[in-house]
């Protein structure tokens, strides 16, 4: 029993090292063995507590690391492990994805692509007088960053050819990889039509790390014949599917829809679809142009005592 406990703790610290890499603070490159743990259900309240605590501790860890405070970092890391580490956080997130608890965000992406196809079909038949059934000629190459399982809606859809990565894989079809360390594509066929960042940006503890993650997405997207005018998907891809907890946009001192749009526009993105539910903000951003070297600091855009501090900084 004691041995099992020790093993769990060690794994937790490996997972944390990978997380530190994600925030760009510690470049230690550690590859974990894939974990195929079964998911025992957590109650909704317990799951939310685990998730909230994990985020808070990760932020404290990053702050301690930024100050080179080794002792504080060690203490926080021990607390993260006590809280179950990334493994328990992922389990809690999987429970959150179940349809009883808000569901799988990739369903919204599929809905939107269906709408885009239908409106393109209508436009085309309106101009030619004939009805055209537009289907996607080529599957869309999707990079799912922060993939928890291969069973979500986008994985089941024939529309996509999905590549999945996560800091810690829970399934053989998910690669253990930090997106911030993924080698840059050397040629077009290593790029993607869509990158999904669903509840991943808010996992990154520091505002500068979030900006860097958004900037990095632009390097993995490709413009290809889908963009040609007769494709039903012209004007919609390549893009980033960005899902955030709603309060990151609706109740932050440092971020609102306008500020996010300014940041994304600076990176060359234009908003083509969005939806706000009670819990989540879903957005589809098309990469239109070149990234500019704009700088966005942590500036108050929405003052108020009851606001949160979620921010994105572009350096
Ligand atoms: C809340 S879960 C999101 C899961 C799922 N995408 C969803 O929408 O429910 C966040 C996941 O993002 C992963 N993640 C965070 N930063 C990452 C990075 N830089 N590269 C790869 N995965 C990352 C974490 O390991 C974690 O499993």
TrEMBL record:
Keywords: Methyltransferase, Nucleus, S-adenosyl-L-methionine, Transferase. InterPro entries: Bmt2/SAMTOR (IPR021867). GO terms for molecular function: methyltransferase activity. S-adenosyl-L-methionine binds at residues 146, 166. It is an enzyme of class 2 (transferase). It is found in: Nucleus, Nucleolus. Its EC number is 2.1.1.-. GO terms for biological process: methylation. Pfam families: Bmt2. S-adenosyl-L-methionine-dependent methyltransferase that specifically methylates the N(1) position of an adenine present in helix 65 in 25S rRNA. Belongs to the BMT2 family. This is 25S rRNA adenine-N(1) methyltransferase. The lineage of its organism: Eukaryota, Fungi, Dikarya, Ascomycota, Pezizomycotina.
């Amino acid at each position: 029993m004691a041995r099992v406990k020790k093993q769990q703790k060690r794994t937790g610290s490996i997972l944390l090292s990978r997380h530190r890499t994600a925030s760009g603070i510690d470049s230690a490159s550690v590859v974990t063995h894939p974990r195929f743990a079964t998911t025992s259900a957590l109650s909704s309240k317990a799951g939310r507590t685990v998730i909230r605590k994990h985020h808070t501790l990760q932020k404290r860890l990053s702050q301690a690391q930024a100050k080179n405070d080794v002792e504080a970092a060690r203490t926080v890391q021990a607390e993260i492990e006590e809280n179950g580490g990334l493994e328990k956080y992922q389990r809690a997130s999987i429970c959150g994805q179940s349809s009883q608890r808000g569901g799988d965000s990739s369903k919204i992406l599929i809905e939107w692509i269906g709408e885009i196809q239908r409106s393109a079909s209508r436009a085309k038949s309106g101009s030619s007088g004939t009805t055209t059934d537009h289907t996607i000629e080529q599957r869309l190459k999707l990079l799912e960053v922060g993939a928890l399982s291969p069973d979500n809606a986008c994985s089941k859809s024939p529309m996509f050819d999905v590549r999945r990565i996560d800091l810690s894989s829970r399934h053989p079809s998910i690669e253990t990889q930090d997106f911030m360390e993924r080698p840059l594509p050397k040629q077009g066929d290593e790029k993607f039509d869509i990158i999904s960042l669903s509840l991943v940006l808010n996992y990154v503890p520091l505002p500068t790390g979030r900006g860097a993650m958004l900037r990095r997405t632009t390097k993995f997207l490709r413009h290809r014949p889908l963009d040609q005018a007769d494709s039903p998907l012209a004007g919609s891809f390549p893009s980033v599917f960005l899902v955030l907890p709603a309060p990151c946009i609706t109740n932050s001192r440092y971020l609102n829809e306008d500020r996010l749009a300014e940041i994304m526009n600076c990176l060359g993105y234009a908003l083509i679809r969005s939806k706000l539910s009670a819990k989540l903000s879903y957005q589809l951003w098309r990469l239109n142009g070149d990234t500019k070297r704009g700088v966005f600091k942590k500036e108050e855009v929405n003052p108020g005592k009851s606001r949160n501090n979620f921010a994105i900084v572009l350096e």
